[in-house]
Amino acid sequence: MTLTIRNIVPIIKANWIGQNDVAVIDTISIDSRSLQNSENTLFFALTGPNHDGHIYIEELIRKGVQYFVVNYIPENAAEKANFLVVENTLEALQKFAAYYRSLFEFPIIGITGSNGKTIIKEWLNFLLSPDFNIIRSPKSYNSQVGVPLSILGINEKHNLGIFEAGISMTNEMEKLQKIIRPTIGILSNIGSAHDEGFSSVGEKIKEKLKLFSSVNVLILNKNKTICAFVNPKIKTFSWCSDDKSADVYITKKNIGELTELQVTYREDTFPITIPFQDQASVENAIHCMMVMLYFGYKHEVIQTRMAQLYPVEMRLKVKNGIYNCTLIDDSYSSDFQSLKIALDFLEHQKQHKKKTLILSDIFQSGLNNEELYSQVSQLIISNKITRVIGIGETISQYKNKFINGITFKNVAEFTKAFDNLNFENETILIKGARDFHFEEIVSMLEEKTHETVLEINLNAISHNLNFFKSKLAPKTKMMVMVKAFGYGNGGFEIAKLLEHHKVNYLGVAFADEGISLKSAGITVPIMVMNPETTSFSAIIQHHLEPEIYSIKGLKAFLKIAEQKKLKHFPIHIKIDTGMHRLGFEEENLEDLIQILKGNETVQIKSILSHMATSDDVKHDAFAKSQIALYEQLSTRLMTELNIKPIRHILNTSGITNYPEAQYDMVRLGIGLYGISNDAEEQKQLENVGTLKSVISQIRTIDEGESVGYGRRFVADKTTRIATIPIGYADGIRRSWGNGVGYVVINGKQAKIVGSVCMDMLMADITDIDCKEGSNVIIFGENPTVNYMAQQLGTIPYEIMTGISQRVKRVFFRE
Ligand SMILES: *Cc1c(COP(=O)(O)O)cnc(C)c1O
């Protein structure tokens, strides 16, 4: 992109307040944290319920950004940069993208529907890339913000676009249509997703069809419900399996793991084999095939390419690597747009100073190689990558463009050199096109543990955080409790994400938890709830902030702090208002005030208390008495010491049930991890952790035969039994066995039979289609941790924190 500010001002109808409007813009940014922001960036300050881009403008100016599209000019930034003032920054971004789109004439495929959009897009890219220079939406960038950003990636060399559009409410699609303006439409499967934003299925279909208001052709599955809504003026190219009047008639047959389609089009009938058998994949593949037919591909070409379709992996995964490395696995795609996204993610998740990028040849950038690798090199420099390892024939030719770069012609050569590359204490982004098989590199670098993993969905954590933020008054701060290894979900990775979301404080139980976060580079202030006297020195050394809850503790801390000649060291005062666990009581306050009056060694950062019954309205009167006492005691401390600390008393259920007591900050815990004890609220949270394993062995036993220790299960008929490598040493309670609990295999419940063993359990899979190696879900969306806890007579906290550290945590982001 090379547009000047002077070009852009009228397009977005901005009021220009600045000096230099001939400057050339080469990147658009909405993320203040991206290292890719530069002097040629135009930054759109977007605003949302949990977010205001205007806040970061001053910081961005310091980092060299000079051009901003804003709703207003922040006071602290006036005259320090150039501003394009508009009424609505998101609309301005969309207008700009729509204009930019209008500069290009080539065909653009627009995909919408409830399911399958991203898979169809990725597969079309694979099927058509031998013949086109394709630009496509990176990952699943299909929203009101994602679509404009995707469109802005187009350049002069592209000759086919594939973009997906996703909506969750009425009136969104018209905006996306104006930006994408597809010439070829694909309506993928319409399911029940996002129903809540629409009054009826009809309304949802009508809204989706708006994407196709000016297409030359619409590809769809011919079906009465949908066709009733399609404008008859739009030319369609339809397929169907039970209606011969469709343009293409298709019959399907399963052959083992494959599906054979008999495709009748015009006068011909020909077979196509696809390497999937599930309904959804088959339908998505057919949509892709329709595009190939529409483009006039020969049957043989369609046959060869369709046979090579593969499972699409869209997630960026964070994994533990060998020698204390951290891996970011994006080994399924390699294009310029998704490289930019992955590098941003690397910056969010980096856990070490050293950052390594393992990169394959890049395809379909539309640029010639010289230009392309120069741009890649720029990107790598702005992201401060420590070393680049290029793998591929083409990237090898441009080795000299990378400072600290080494290259290999292929993965085999890399493997030979592996031992000399000395991977250690670094964050490694592994980004390669599918053909390069970088999964081999991931497997070499990955820490080897057994097959049971706890998968943590980082998007769900962000969602839950924003959900609780939206319940707070704008000025209320947020402390997030990451004690006990983030409630069992993972310490560092979650802390890093929270830092990225700019939470104000983290809370841990013990000093060592805080030290490990600080040592890994977390810079958010951390409060230690239960600092032992023996850890005071370490607390000071690592800039942790102790919670002080007794006169004895205070004196001990002051003694060390004075020896070290500290000034205004931050501490937190806990008062006991009824929980009777830790804290100063009313009768201690006088002593506390005497000691702290005029004291310069420490500074009271906050005053807190903790509620015993915020989750149970039955004890409403007690909860309110705690809040009242807190108000009284904290006010007394503030008045007598003449201080204005942060005050906080609410945990997760407090946020829900006692919003009037938010004070200056709240302490979010279990809610972040997707758990609420309010049924309505639970529906709005997203599941964070999924505990998974695989089937080790399957056997069939006869009536009268038993399973496991003590013969506690005896079959009353021929029964198929699966053994799964997870047991009570991993945190699965023994009482979850013997028919109480179940695991889920291929979407079906399999009862746990016999007693749970230390490292294994057995389940009845008589009615389930599965094999050795099949995936097993222990908990997640079903069964939920909440349900397990209820059945076992405990609370979700205990189940979550009880998952043993030998279970590997894998973090991913969609
Ligand atoms: C654990 C804890 C919290 C968070 O509680 P949740 O119920 O998980 O939200 C808040 N404050 C204190 C003092 C805690 O110990």
UniProtKB/TrEMBL annotation:
Keyword set, alphabetical order: Isomerase, Ligase, Pyridoxal phosphate
Recorded metabolic or biological pathway in which this protein acts: Amino-acid biosynthesis; D-alanine biosynthesis; D-alanine from L-alanine: step 1/1
Required co-factors: pyridoxal 5'-phosphate
CDD domains with a match to the protein in the record: PLPDE_III_AR
Protein residues bound to substrate: R581, M758
Active site: K483, Y709
Residues forming coiled coils: none
Catalytic activity annotation: L-alanine = D-alanine
Stated family: Belongs to the alanine racemase family.
Classification via HAMAP family: Ala_racemase
UniProt protein name: Alanine racemase
